Amino acid sequence: MLQVSLYRYNPETDEAPYMQDFSVDTGDRDLMVLDVLELIKADLDGSVTYRRSCREGVCGSDGLNMNGKNGLACITPLSESVKGGKLVIRPLPGLPVIRDLVVDMSLFYAQYEKVQPYLQNPTPAPAIERLQSPEERAQLDGLYECILCACCSTSCPSFWWNPDRFVGPAGLLQAYRFLADSRDTATEDRLAKLDDPFSVFRCHGIQNCVNVCPKGLNPTKAIGHIRTMLLNRAT
Amino acid sequence: MRAALQLAQSGYKTAVISKVFPTRSHTVSAQGGITCAIASADPQDDWRWHMYDTVKGSDYIGDQDAIEYMCSVGPEAIFELEHMGLPFSRTEEGRIYQRPFGGQSKNFGEGGQAARTCAAADRTGHALLHTLYQNNIKNETVFFNEWFAVDLVKNQDGAVVGVIAICIETGETVYVKSKATVFATGGAGRIYASTTNAHINTGDGLGMALRAGVPAQDMEMWQFHPTGIYGAGTLVTEGCRGEGGYLVNKDGERFMERYAPNAKDLAGRDVVARSMVLEILEGRGCGPNGDHVKLKLDHLGEEVLESRLPGICELSRTFAHVDPVKEPIPVVPTCHYMMGGIPTNVHGQALTVDAQGSDAVIPGLYACGEVACVSVHGANRLGGNSLLDLVVFGRASGLFIEKSLREGIELRDASQTDIEAAGARLEALNAREQGEQVSPLRHELQEIMQNHFGVFRTGEFMREGIAKLADLRERVENVALADRSNAFNTSRIECLELQNLFETAEATAVVAEARDESRGAHAREDFTERDDENWLCHSLYQSEGKQVSKRSVNFTPQTVETFQPMARSY
């Protein structure tokens, strides 16, 4: 039996959050953490609340904190997360909790929208696609794959302190995704909007974002590129 | 999302109701690509060749006017996506990279395998969905994220004038009034126990439509994708075989050479899936139980795998504990796509049939993507055609609604009684004190569908399944809430979804039993031949009285000659 400790909070009935323990029969299988949550919800307590959709690590719904580390429940096997026979599951840190493992991601999405995450190019489009060489396209690898799960931003102390002013690793990764796109012409405008003490420069290179990204992306590196572009622009 | 984008750009007030944050919808899981004759890989490529392949792939019950529209308008829709920023992979010339996919040919089947599927590595759906969401942000579309549409509101004339929707976070329930309601609610793969589909694919649009008296078309046609990861059900793209991978049985034999000597592993998905099941049934399956086959990729080399199929390497390592660079991936045919759905015309307008048997538009209701049956996929969808379908017909719906709004849409307001009628199901669920829990009921439903309506079907066995479903109906209708909270109550949503799954499953079951022939994905062991005399047509299902009728297939494209039904071989 696996011992699972779950963060519980229902704003309608609970004055404060608490941890609830469950014993789950995993049949000694190396299940994913999401499978364990599904077992709990189906067999032990139907009121346990969390988000999930694709169950294969591409939709970004089930970012959670498992034994102290952020990740996606659907692609985190028990063999990689259980410590000492126990699994502690909490919501992503730093965002307001709506209920149980569901957090309010409004601030996270607002920072994403702030970087204007869409291609800008006012020149008339050709009748076919805009051409882009494989080398130019390769600049987007490691950037466009982000699934907006918020594992990175909610593991970042700078984002915990200033979630309203520091764009955070996820937003900045997307900012750089468009700065790096050979088809985008809004570079100057994008950099101008980021050129303040908080938006980018609150990153202190702690690299928690790199450590937790379930897609193996490197926001710190992208932030480094933006810093260089901002510094070059200033000189 | 493509329809919303079109309408937001036109300046009309547009809202999207989505039960998940928009980039978490199932399109995100599409991997291999979007098939379209943009003439990048082959400058001579022609949309008519793509049309021929799609008609043939559909086993001739795809509507040829709709397929013509999709294939000919497709390139424009793809270039628009690229201009919006979609990060397609590229050729040395800087054009969009296209890979070979199953069922795609040059020169009307005479010129060999075509490379026509536009790709962003093996994450094309992710790239597409994010690009569409990003452009909706740009155009200030209003999003009601984590709101769930419960049922359609119809006025006294039978026109659709909006939906009842519930805010998942707060439980607030409202009537959202609309001059045009577009369903882009996706598929319902969760009617089966083993599926590549996301948890959220519960046929919500089908459920709402059937309860409102809207018919469903070709519901017996479910695609079983040849390569779901054994055990986990997660999808491995057909692009693997497009890049040169192939299937082997326990003897290491490339068995598709026997079943489809020309196209081999790139035959239609229905053909490949059936061949795999036959290998397993005849004792040549892999593993201790001989219940799967393997997909061999290691001969392609690490460089190709990591650059063209990085997501597959990731999924295989996570879910099959197999590194495709070194070993083959265990795979099994897995429920993947619903070819059937709400019948529509090329403008996305939902259709029913009147007393004379003629098509009649249902005012106010539109559908596009997997929930719709326009029908471009007929009895078997070709890989890469689903993304094209949703983009082309999402766009077409938006364009048509924009035009209609300019001309003026006058629908009578719903009365209080109409609104209450639409809210009745939710009211009843909230008021119910006793009943069974959602999870065991869902499990039972999925097992019935898996066992009685799988890759191969027989009448007797299906009738047993239908009887089991009939017993299950009342229990599903009386499902009880384990949790009565208004705060992010996912149990309530799961109950509403279960009822949608049930409507979809029952439609599938009844029509599958009625179509006594084998065509495309619908393979009957008791009727092994295609029967063009009786069944070269769509099936139409009405939930009231569980009636099955027939509807004609369109054989009159506007700019090309009709593709006549022929024996289908690869």
Distance, first to last CA of chain A: 62 Å
Report the biggest beta sheet of chain A as strand number plus sense, adding barrel if it closes: 5 strands, mixed
Helix content of chain A: 25-40%
Strand content of chain B: 15-25%
Apparent shape of chain B: globular
> How would you classify the quaternary structure?
heterodimer
Tally of DSSP β-strands of chain B: 22
- What is the arithmetic mean of pLDDT of chain A? 97
Radius of gyration of chain B: 23 Å
Order of helices and strands of chain A: EEHEEHEEEHHHHHHH
H/I helix tally of chain B:
16
Structural class computed from helices and strand pairing of chain B: alpha+beta
The tally of beta strands of chain A, per DSSP, is 7
Q: Which segments of chain B are poorly predicted (pLDDT under 50) over 5 or more consecutive residues?
A: none
Helix tally of chain A equals 9
Average pLDDT reading of chain B: 97
Report the CATH topology name of the largest domain in chain A. Answer: Fumarate Reductase Iron-sulfur Protein, Chain B, domain 2
Radius of gyration of chain A: 20 Å
Query: What shape does the CA trace of chain A take?
Result: elongated
CATH class of the largest domain in chain A: Mainly Alpha
Description of the molecule:
The complex is a heterodimer of chains A (235) and B (570). With 235 residues, chain A is an alpha+beta fold. In chain A, 49% of the residues are buried. Chain A contains nine helices and seven strands, in the order E-E-H-E-E-H-E-E-E-H-H-H-H-H-H-H. Chain A folds into two domains: 2-103, Ubiquitin-like (UB roll), CATH 3.10.20; 106-234, Fumarate Reductase Iron-sulfur Protein, Chain B, domain 2, CATH 1.10.1060.10. The model of chain A has no long low-confidence stretch (mean pLDDT 97). The longest helix of chain A is centred in the C-terminal third of the chain and has 16 residues, at 219-234. Chain A has a five-stranded mixed β-sheet with strand order 2-1-5-3-4, covered by helices on one side. A two-stranded antiparallel sheet of chain A has the order 6-7. Chain B has helices at residues 2-10, 47-57, 64-84, 124-138, 204-211, 239-242, 256-259, 269-281, 302-308, 310-320, 385-407, 416-431, 438-452, 459-477, 490-514, 532-535, and strands spanning 15-18, 34-35, 98-105, 113-118, 142-145, 147-154, 160-167, 173-177, 181-183, 216-217, 222-229, 246-248, 293-296, 329-338, 342-343, 349-353, 359-367, 372-373, 456-457, 523-524, 537-542, 547-552. The longest helix of chain B is centred in the C-terminal third of the chain and has 25 residues, at 490-514. In chain B, 60% of the residues are buried. The model of chain B has no long low-confidence stretch (mean pLDDT 97). The two termini of chain B are 35 Å apart. The interface between A and B is large, with 56 and 60 residues.
